[in-house]
TrEMBL record:
Residues the record lists as binding Zn(2+): 32, 35, 50, 53
Annotated family: Belongs to the eukaryotic ribosomal protein eS31 family.
Keyword field contains Kinase: no
Lineage per the UniProt record: Archaea, Candidatus Altarchaeota, Candidatus Altiarchaeia, Candidatus Altarchaeales, Candidatus Altarchaeaceae
Free-text comment on the cofactor: Binds 1 zinc ion per subunit.
Annotated NCBIfam families: PRK00432.1
Keywords linked to the UniProt accession: Metal-binding, Ribonucleoprotein, Ribosomal protein, Zinc, Zinc-finger
Location of the Small ribosomal subunit protein eS31 domain: 14-56
Gene Ontology CC: one annotated term: ribosome
Name of the protein in its database record: Small ribosomal subunit protein eS31
Subunit structure: Part of the 30S ribosomal subunit.
Listed cofactors: Zn(2+)
An individual GO BP term: translation
Amino acid sequence: MAAAKEKAKKTTKKSENYNIVGNKLIRTTKFCTRCGEGVFMAKHKDRYSCGKCGYTEFIGKK
């Protein structure tokens, strides 16, 4: 039997959720309203979604 291929581990890019301006740390993405602070919501083309609880906020057209 052939050896199974190892999957590459998915790396997280948590540093993309923050910007440093002067001495202040600014969060660039939203927190989940259900899970609270510390759980970021993923930004899609038409919505924000939480990967932990599944909460979704749709972005309205301007």
